[in-house]
Design goal:
This protein is α+β, with helices and mostly antiparallel strands and 170 residues long. The chain contains 4 helices and 6 strands; from the N terminus they run H-H-E-H-E-H-E-E-E-E. It has a single domain, classed as Nuclear Transport Factor 2, Chain: A (Roll), CATH 3.10.450.50. Strands 2-1-6-5-4-3 form a 6-stranded mixed beta sheet.
Length: 170
């Protein structure tokens, strides 16, 4: 019994410490994903820029076609700001997170739903995007940053022409 307690104690403690470290890193990476969605919903573009690495392989091809492109955080946020400015509300909901950490790199997968809301005369006030995200992150001096971002569209529901619908002024 003494050999078991003293012989295995440090190895068990080390393993537990590694497990805690992994859980902490997974939590930090998940927080970056949440920060991206919350800051986008709040239209806090400075906050959104902060989650991205200086260059991002940006892939929205499932939604818009084309090819993935390298973009800066400024280019991404300028595009989103322009594309979302006509909407009254934006709401992202993410979940089913899967995180894999390998030293100073990580992969984050999650399901995501984005709701766009704009009151209009058609009473078709919403558009919903349903899909998943694949994000690759790197650990920098200032924390985890997204350097690859991919949205995988499953379907769009609701008013696909929401911005062009006649507005009620609501």
């Amino acid at each position: 019994m003494v050999v078991f307690l003293f012989g295995c104690g440090p190895a068990f403690h080390h393993s537990t410490h590694e497990q805690v470290t992994i859980l902490v890193e997974q939590n930090e990476i998940t927080k970056i994903g949440n920060k991206l969605f919350i800051c986008t919903d709040n239209r806090d573009w400075s906050c959104v820029k902060d989650v991205f690495a200086p260059k991002v392989l940006f892939d929205m091809t499932s939604l818009s076609g084309g090819e993935p492109v390298k973009m800066t955080p400024e280019q991404i946020t300028n595009t989103w700001e322009q594309g979302l400015k006509g909407l009254k509300e934006i709401h992202h909901q993410a979940g089913n997170y899967q995180v894999t950490v390998k030293e100073k790199e990580a992969d984050l997968f999650c399901y995501g739903i984005a709701f766009h809301y704009l009151p209009n005369l058609t009473n078709q006030n919403t558009r919903t995007f349903v899909g998943s995200y694949n994000m690759h992150m790197i650990l920098t001096e200032t924390g985890w940053k997204i350097d690859k971002f991919k949205f995988n569209l499953k379907f769009i529901d609701g008013n696909k022409n929401l911005e062009s619908s006649s507005k009620t002024g609501s």
